[in-house]
Design goal:
The structure holds two protein chains of two kinds. Chain A is an alpha/beta fold. Chain A contains five helices and five strands. In chain A, strand 4, helix 4 and strand 5 form a beta-alpha-beta unit. In chain A, helix 1 packs across helix 5 and helix 2 packs parallel to helix 3. Chain B is α+β, with helices and mostly antiparallel strands. In chain B, 16% of the residues are buried. The chains are: A alpha/beta, B alpha+beta. At the A-B interface, helix 1 and helix 5 of A face helix 2 and helix 3 of B.
């Protein structure tokens, strides 16, 4: 926890974590990623409690959330964050396998900032994650109180 | 009656008085005889006796006179009594006459009353007859009532049975609905799981094959690279099949949101979108009048996309390709028709045409998973319509689907 990371990735599947990191590495953004393995850990990080009690107070520039995770799923994390005045400004991107309409609708109703379906085709997946990383990690100006980009 | 008994008493009272009179007469005759006495000197005696006799006679005559007077008085009394009696009789008679008169009046009154009573009785008889009629009518009505009541009761029983039957049916329906709802929920959970969980490993297969290919490609020979490509290609194909299956499943279970669909506009948009992708081809379109129909817009769009993209796909060897889209009204339905001059199909396999993942052409010839026409059939049938097709191989195919026009009674 020494180094502040700008992207929080909540993903329970290690293969997906590795592929996502591989895709982000193509833009040299892998080092900017902090990985948590479920929604409970994601909330601990955001609320600076548990294992993340001592982390620096800045918020990540973006949270990439898998929908289906053990314990607390992505929608629950999204609901909590968007209902909390101190956290609701953090951009949240759903990064999920689900193309189900109800997940899409519910995510937007809860105030998600983007919804990306992971393509089966790896090249498409790489392209999608690359664009995500570039947009949220480089192009988008995050809210005040976020980790600043080290130039 | 009082007058009659008075009349009887009258004569008897008269007799009583007559007997009293007779007794009085006997007493007076006996008294002179008992007072006479016999003396001594004959001449003198004679004279004396004669004088005495004359005296006696005179005495007797005086006695007789008194007697006669008494009798006369008695007679007069009797006569007086008789006049009184007569007057009384006349009174009685008058009274009797009055009574008789009264009796006659009474009789007339009685007769009148009797007649009136008879009339009343007559009326009574009539009334009684009428009452009997009424009673009979009432009885008939009651009988009818009874019959009616029985009918109503039997109808009631039928109704009760029907209600019980319906309640049972509703209960069965409710249970069935619950089962359907549960099945739908399970299906949803299933397809969610398919969507999320089956796709993830495929993504990993393709992802790591891809990473492997990138890092070791220079050391691999052509054959090994081809194998890796085939692994990757198969993973992608399975991903497409899963996606298609999910769409097909969604077409079957998602709720129909019916509204008026402008067929001409919809077909125009689909033709434009799909036509734009067919660069460098010569395509002749002929689009006729297409009436609006009630339906779920995204679903009907999918029907047209599938039929029109099929027409484009299977006319690829033809130049120019000719695609006609038309419609005709038939009863309460509209029949839409997409005709092309493409490769067509053999009519002996027409029954397989609308099946899931059924294909009448090889994958190398024409790409596709074989889900399109299955979706068309499912969507059209959910809208209450039918799908069918005709073809002559090498000359083209005609695909039809019918939809209810939404106008009642036409």
């Amino acid at each position: 926890m020494n180094q502040l990371k700008r992207i929080l990735l909540a993903e329970d599947n290690p293969k997906d974590v590795e592929l996502t990191l591989a895709a982000l590495e193509e833009n040299h953004l892998a080092n900017e990623v902090l990985v948590v393995n479920d929604g409970a850990q994601a909330l601990d990080f955001l609320y600076r409690r548990g294992a993340f009690k001592l982390r620096a107070p800045e918020n990540p520039a973006v949270v990439l959330l898998d929908l289906k995770m053990p314990k607390v799923d992505g929608l629950d994390v999204l609901r909590k964050v968007k209902a909390d005045d101190t956290l609701k400004m953090i951009p949240i991107v759903m990064l999920t396998s689900s193309r189900e309409e109800k997940d899409l609708v519910e995510s937007y109703q809860l105030g998600v900032n983007a919804y990306v379906v992971k393509p089966v085709d790896f090249q498409q997946f790489v392209d999608a994650v690359k664009q995500l990383g570039v947009f949220w990690g480089l192009i988008n100006e995050p809210p005040i109180g976020s980790v600043r980009r080290v130039r | 009656m009082g007058a009659v008994s008075e009349a009887h008493r009258g004569p008897r009272a008269q007799d009583d008085r007559a007997q009293e009179g007779d007794r009085g007469t006997e007493k007076q005759a006996g008294e002179p005889g008992s007072g006479r006495s016999v003396s001594g000197d004959r001449g003198q005696d004679d004279a004396r006796s004669t004088t005495s006799a004359i005296l006696n006679i005179l005495e007797d005559a005086a006695g007789e006179k008194a007697h006669v007077e008494a009798t006369q008085k008695a007679v007069l009394n009797i006569l007086e009594d008789s006049a009184e009696e007569k007057a009384r009789l006349a009174d009685t008679h008058r009274a009797a006459l009055n009574i008789l008169e009264d009796a006659a009046g009474e009789r007339a009154r009685v007769e009148g009353t009797q007649k009136a009573v008879l009339n009343i009785l007559d009326d009574f008889a009539e009334e009684k007859a009428r009452l009997a009629d009424t009673q009979r009518a009432a009885l008939n009505i009651l009988e009818d009532f009874d019959i009616e009541k029985n009918k109503v009761e039997s109808v009631n029983v039928e109704l009760r049975n029907e209600i019980a039957e319906r309640t049972r049916a509703e209960e069965a329906l409710r249970i069935a609905n619950t089962a359907v709802e549960r099945a739908n929920k399970e299906l949803e959970a299933f397809s969610y799981s398919v969507s999320h969980d089956l796709r993830a490993p495929l993504r990993h297969v393709d992802g790591f094959v891809n990473l492997l290919t990138k890092s070791v490609a220079p050391q691999l020979d052509e054959k090994h690279r081809r194998w890796l490509d085939m692994v990757s290609e198969s993973a992608k194909q399975m991903g497409r099949l899963i996606d298609d299956l999910l769409v097909f499943s969604r077409m079957g279970r998602s709720e129909l949101k019916t509204e008026r669909v402008d067929s001409e506009r919809l077909v125009g948009e689909v033709v434009r979108d799909l036509g734009e992708q067919e660069t460098g081809r010569s395509i002749e379109w002929e689009i006729g009048a297409l009436p609006p129909v009630p339906g779920d817009p995204p679903m009907l769009r999918l029907v047209w996309v599938n039929l029109i993209s099929n027409a484009l796909k299977y006319t690829r060897p033809k130049s120019p390709a000719r695609i006609e889209i038309s419609s005709r009204a038939e009863g309460s339905e509209v029949i839409f028709c997409v005709r092309d001059n493409g490769v067509g199909f053999d009519m002996q396999y027409v029954h397989r045409l609308f099946g899931v993942f059924q294909r009448l052409h090889g994958a190398t010839e024409f790409e596709g998973t074989g889900i399109g026409l299955a979706n068309v059939r499912r969507i059209v049938s959910r809208h209450g319509g039918r799908t069918w097709a005709e073809s002559t191989p090498g000359e083209g195919a005609i695909f039809y689907f019918s939809l209810p026009n939404g106008k009642e009674g036409s």
